[in-house]
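User: Assemble these into one structure.

Assistant: Restating your components, then the assembled model:
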Amino acid sequence: MDPTPPYSLRTERLLLREFTPDDLDDVHAYACDDATVRYMDWGPNTLEQTRVFLGEEIERAQASPRTHIGLAVQHLDSGTVIGSIRLGLWPHHNADIGYSFGSPWWRRGYGYEAAHALAAHAFEALGVHRLWATCDTRNAGSYAIMDKLGMRREGTIRQNQPSRDGGWRDTYLYAVLASEWRARAA
Ligand SMILES: CC(C)(COP(=O)(O)OP(=O)(O)OC[C@H]1O[C@@H](n2cnc3c(N)ncnc32)[C@H](O)[C@@H]1OP(=O)(O)O)[C@@H](O)C(=O)NCCC(=O)NCCS
């Protein structure tokens, strides 16, 4: 694997790139968005929490070896950072993917476009063998992206996290193997 910064992955409508301090306002716009954080274990953020997050992402980009690739998702036409996407690199060529976007940008294909680009990079450039992701079982948008990426629902982890509404929430585990990714691409 060679997860060397700086990252710059371009898709038809998006640029997945390293965060910069100038992204604070754009990142905060979605990090304080109640709809965006509904199924997340963080947020809605204060401006200070977003500043800390941004600082951590910029610092983690310098780590060697890099085990966390957290990228800003910039909308090419407007220049706005509309969300973020991350790839966690684990032993044995395992990786996990996660993403979040501001609600004004939902349902326009950006989530899938960004996730597909980073998943392709994971398999084709980083030599990932297994890519996994989790989400709240109520988060239909999140697992729709996993389905569309060719990930398979491997199971339901029961009551592993507290729910915002009180009580506990269940989590789906999804994954796709490199062989399955290649077979779909062929
Ligand atoms: C989940 C999220 C990333 C989806 O992003 P998006 O840009 O709206 O997704 P896309 O437009 O690329 O849609 C991809 C597919 O999911 C479907 N989809 C998107 N949102 C959906 C929803 N709420 N319910 C059902 N399907 C949905 C789309 O119809 C599309 O399928 P199709 O191509 O077959 O029509 C976005 O809603 C989000 O950022 N949510 C808040 C953060 C979050 O929950 N992140 C995931 C944490 S695990």
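The longest strand covers residues 152-162.
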